[in-house]
Amino acid sequence: MIAMDRVSKVFSVGPVKVPALTDVSFRVAKGEFVVLHGKSGAGKTTLLKLLYRTEVPSEGDVEVLGQPLAKLSRRGVAALRQNIGVVFQDAKLLPGRTVYENIAFVLRVLGTPRGEITARTFDALRAVGLHSRARAYPAQLSQGEAQRAALARAIVRRPALLLADEPTGNLDDEMGNEILQVIRDIHAGGTTILFATHQARLATGLRRRVLVLEAGRLVKDDG
Fold first, then answer.
1. Is the C or the N end of the chain the one with fewer CB within 10 Å?
2. Distance CA 212, CA 36 (A)
3. pTM score, two decimals?
4. Nearest Cα residue to 169 out of 193, 197, 149, 150
């Protein structure tokens, strides 16, 4: 599902070269739930961006869903992203659209037949326990509800892989636990999960395989 082989990423800040990842290698099999743990600035978000192909590595090879990302055309990247769901710490909902419209919009962009959009949108809302809030606007949602809506948007395309970047980072413990349960349910349905967090207690409490990043280096893989 995911393969990184000796991947490094260096950003240029003026004349200064800033390493974000250094010589990272790991594999994630289909159906795994893997936690990516590290402090802020450790390289977690950069790693996820490489998998989603919004960044490219400075060195090394990245494969996702069996495809070498370096060889993908622009059209190939777009096709790959249809099979990857992404959720962030900030829900990033469109403020002028209802919850239903935020999620249905993804399907419209993908060219989903009109007759399927309503059914698939409500399927995603039911999966995250938010179908009763379909007509609400983002400003009317709690933080936990907004994150549920973001998860529904990520899974409405029925992705094979879900990349979760600190999805509980802005939530209190109760709301965070609710989001974690939703993600566990998504995983139980067969979706591969890569879950990034800076919270050590959360990383160990999930009782999943943990990859630990420190200053851009993979220092531990307990799988």
1. C
2. 6
3. 0.91
4. 197
pLDDT, tens only, 78-137: 999 999 999 988 888 999 999 999 999 999 988 889 889 999 999 999 999 999 999 999
Residue position matching structure tokens 């999943």: 208
Q: What is the pLDDT of residue 206?
A: 87
Per-residue pLDDT tens for 144-186? 999 999 999 999 989 999 999 988 887 788 888 888 898 999 9
Query: What Cα–Cα distance (Å) separates residue 135 from each residue in 64, 157, 162, 167?
Result: 35, 20, 25, 23
Name the residue among 132, 109, 179, 171 with its Cα closest to residue 151: 179
Name the DSSP class of 92: -
- SS3 for 124-181, per residue? HHHHCCCHHHCCCCHHHCCHHHHHHHHHHHHHCCCCCEEEEECCCCCCCHHHHHHHHH
Of the candidates 57, 28, 5, the residue with the CA atom closest to the CA atom of residue 210:
28
Q: How many Å apart are CA 40 and CA 60, to the nearest integer?
A: 23
Residue type, 2: I
